[in-house]
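Transposase InsH N-terminal domain-containing protein structure dump, as promised
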Amino acid sequence: MKPRQTKQDPQKDLFRPQLIDIINPNHALVRLAKVLDWDRLDTKLGTHFATVGAAALPTRLMVGLLYLQHLYNLSDEMVLEQWLESPYYQYFCGETFFQHDFPCHPTSLVKWRKRLGEEGCEWLLTQTIQAGLKLKVIKSASLKRVIVDTTVQEKNITFPTDAKLYSKARQQLTQVAKDLAITLRQTYDKACHELMPKIGRYGHAKQYK
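structure tokens r here:
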């Protein structure tokens, strides 16, 4: 079923201080929480849920946890532990009073990510960009060009081991001899074809001797 709304009645906790009264209003998470259009998030992401069955967890809670998780590079378990200790995390996720219990199980984050899918996650990213523009943290000109660091990207290369370098040098020498019409008594083509896989297995097993 669609996510339920987070509505807390301050009248029921007259003697408890509200989070807004104990946190710094200039904190980055507080400013970001005021800029994000939570109602639009709830309406947009609500389309990923059915209209029957048990109500899902509140959108602001789950989206807030996902944002915090990626913002601080935390695991599902760690972001919930940090949420339990930080009033800023709880305020960002829509709480009015400080909570002393976990808001959900870590597996709920996994289920939400699967339900949103790639399209929903990309849409959430666009909302963070819009929030950054409103807060003037980023400029429109910064979005015209994307710089990608491919240092850790998988590449179609192999590590130049000694055996591969020797084999490549042998092939080049054999080709040079062929171009110069030099007859070689042995080219070692067949021997290298059999030995190279063995060398790789020995190296993998660290049996270099």
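Residues 10-143 form one domain.
lmk if u need the other ones
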